[in-house]
Amino acid sequence: MTNASSTILHQTVPTPLGDVGLAANHDGLVGVWFVGQAHAPQTQGWQEVPRPEAKRHPVLGLAHAQLNEYLAGQRQSFELPLALPFGTPFQQRVWHTLQTIAYGQTTHYGDIAERVGSPKAVRAVGAAIGRNPLSMVIPCHRVLGANGALTGYAGGISRKKSLLALEAAHA
Q1: Which residues are paired to 34 by β-bridges?
Q2: What are phi and psi of 24, to 5 degrees?
Q3: What is the DSSP secondary structure assignment for residue 86, as one 8-state letter?
Q4: Are 66 and 119 in contact (CB under 8 A)?
Q5: Rounded to an integer, what distance in angstroms lies between the CA atom of residue 171 and that of residue 168?
Q6: 44 near 83, Cβ under 8 Å?
Q7: pTM for the whole thing?
Q8: How far from each other are the two terminal CA atoms of the chain, in whole angstroms?
Q9: What pLDDT shows up at residue 85?
Q10: Which are the contacts of 92, defined by CB distance < 8 A and separation ≥ 6?
Q11: Confidence of residue 3 (pLDDT cuts 50, 70, 90)
Q12: Residue partners of 77: CB distance under 8 A and separation at least 6
């Protein structure tokens, strides 16, 4: 039997960059991903919420509104309750570190590896970033290859390029 705090509710919303899945539990937002992206979550067992009801859900409605503001260049940070029930302790450290990258700024995988205390774990950092469950909210698109190349983004390189251009235009 599933209790209310572990039930995950989800919905799909349209955005200028394609459909985005949003998921939340009683504690907060647990997922933001581009539909069809690499490493998209398995939603089997999650409760799909119709759009009118989702707008009234305290977390899904707020996430949708803030995501729209962000993609319109009207918001530089998200103010959402986050619930990260997934991920290893290492992944959690990487995801927490990603949240410190300022809007309109970029860094590289090696820098994140150093900041999480594992300077030789660049590939593991890349894998953790690829599993980021909160695309855009935890800004993994701000991480570039060592030479500044647009490498690895679960939502696709063209979306990564679009998000970086959006932030550069509004920073």
Answers
A1: 20
A2: -145, 155
A3: -
A4: no
A5: 5
A6: no
A7: 0.90
A8: 47
A9: 78
A10: 84
A11: very low
A12: 103
Q: What is the mean pLDDT of residues 39-44?
A: 83
Residue 68, pLDDT > 50, answer yes
Furthest-apart CA atoms within the chain: distance in Å: 50
Q: Is 2's pLDDT higher than 90?
A: no
**How would residue 152 be classed by pLDDT, with cut points 50, 70 and 90?**
confident
In percent, the amount of the chain with pLDDT more than 70 equals 95
Asked if the model's pLDDT at residue 103 lies above 90, the reply is yes
With b meaning 16 or more CB within 10 Å and e meaning fewer, what string describes 3-32? eeeeebbbbebebebeebbbbbbeebbbbb
* DSSP secondary structure letters along 121-155: -HHHHHHHHHT-SBBTTB-GGGEE-TTS-----TT
Tokens of 148: 């500044």
In 3-state terms, what secondary structure has residue 18?
coil
Q: Is the CB of residue 49 less than 8 Å from the CB of residue 28?
A: no
Residues 102 and 121: beta-carbon distance below 8 Å = no
Q: What angle do CA 58, 128, 13 make, to 5 degrees?
A: 35
> Cα–Cα distance between 74 and 17 in angstroms, integer?
16
Known catalytic residues? 140
Q: 89-98 vs 122-130: helix axis angle to the nearest 10?
A: 80
User: Do 55 and 64 form a contact (C-beta atoms < 8 A)?
Assistant: yes
**160/132 Cα distance (integer angstroms):** 14
